[in-house]
């Protein structure tokens, strides 16, 4: 059983054990892992944590868009947002957000995911048309360029979310923000020894 409480949002229905979805095909999953977390650095070292998570995402063919350390349910957590190619599809991406709450010998993860289903690449094309190709691509903010993952570009910036309110990246960010305001963690899990890295 996962240790999260009060995280379900209006419009979400249970679709599997510990998984919920809404009509927009946004999925929330809650998990508990009875293993030492495989985070590359402690939460007290955000720069090293970001670099390590960026390399992990790139090695899997994706890209870490953003990562921050913040409290979730009163517990220190890693908030990260990753983009990946849609499997077995010539076009399109999925966006995976997660709150990882690590402890010394286990972790709890709350995931939010959504995928492009139509209009593949419209956000990227429109932003590139606005800023121009020379200003579109940028070095990865966490230094993982050249690792084989997806490129870093300005269209993933949250500044463009308001312009693309139904884009899956925008919606994942919104749902994650809503979750952060109401998630609670079971006291027994909260009392476990902290993750030291």
How would you sum up this structure, described in words?
- The chain has about 200 residues and is of the alpha+beta class.
- It has one domain: 3-Layer(aba) Sandwich (Protein Transport Mog1p, Chain A), CATH 3.40.1000.
- It has 5 helices and 9 strands.
- The chain has helices spanning about 45-60, 120-130, 135, 170-180, 185-190, and strands at about 5, 15, 20, 25-35, 65-70, 75-85, 95-100, 105-115, 185.
- The chain has a 7-stranded antiparallel beta sheet with strand order 2-3-4-8-7-6-5, with helices on both faces. The protein has a two-stranded antiparallel sheet with strand order 1-9.
- Strand 5 and strand 6 (about 75-85) form a beta hairpin.
- The protein is globular and about 50 Å long.
- The model has no long low-confidence stretch (mean pLDDT about 95).
Architecture blueprint of SSEs:
Layout: E1 4-5, E2 13-16, E3 19-21, E4 27-33, H1 46-59, E5 63-72, E6 75-85, E7 93-102, E8 107-115, H2 122-131, H3 133-136, H4 168-182, E9 184-185, H5 187-190
Strand tally is: 9
Mean pLDDT: 94
- Alpha carbon gyration radius: 17 Å
Q: What's the level 1 CATH class?
A: Alpha Beta
Q: What share of residues is helical?
A: 10-25%
Total helical segments:
5
Distance between the termini: 24 Å
* Overall morphology: globular
The side-by-side strand order for the widest beta sheet comes to 2-3-4-8-7-6-5
